[in-house]
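Appendix B. Chain record.
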Amino acid sequence: MNKLIYKVVALSLVAIGLLTSCDNEESLQQYYVDHKESEGFFASSIPKTIVGIDADKLSEESAKAYKSIDKISILALPLTDKNKATYTTETEKLDKIFKSEKYKLLMSHNSDGMKMKMMYDGSQEAIDEIIVYGNSPEMGLGIARILGDDMNMGSILNMMKELENQNINPTGIQSMMKGMGMPMGKEKSNGE
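Structure tokens predicted for this chain:
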């Protein structure tokens, strides 16, 4: 009888542990909510117009893709001497979140210590969000969530190719990054 009670208790503890670990898996949305007001983090929702794209100069398909985007939500942790441990911990948390099958990888890029991933959530015909995640042991980490209605990946990729030929003024983006405490390329090289 004691063995039976012991087995029931042991199995119950294992089951509770499994259920708790499943419930504790953090989503990207929960991560945003938990960190948007945390010390050292910068969070902002920005209109798509800050990117400097003139939709009138786009093809009909690209203009439709641009209009399907509502806003861009940004969360960043600029790296300082005081938050290096936080940077490491938060990078590990985000890497775990993005290993979920929910997020489909579009592309990744690694160079000079900077790691970037572009992912999406949803189907290619009706994307819920596009996520750009980057981290660098020199600059910190940042996540941009591009939110919209029925975004189409093919159309968005065509729009991005089309935009390569346009002269986009990134002044708004650069100002925002400076406001977050992110060093800009020219400033950093001048300061060294």
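Further analysis of this model is presented in Appendix C.
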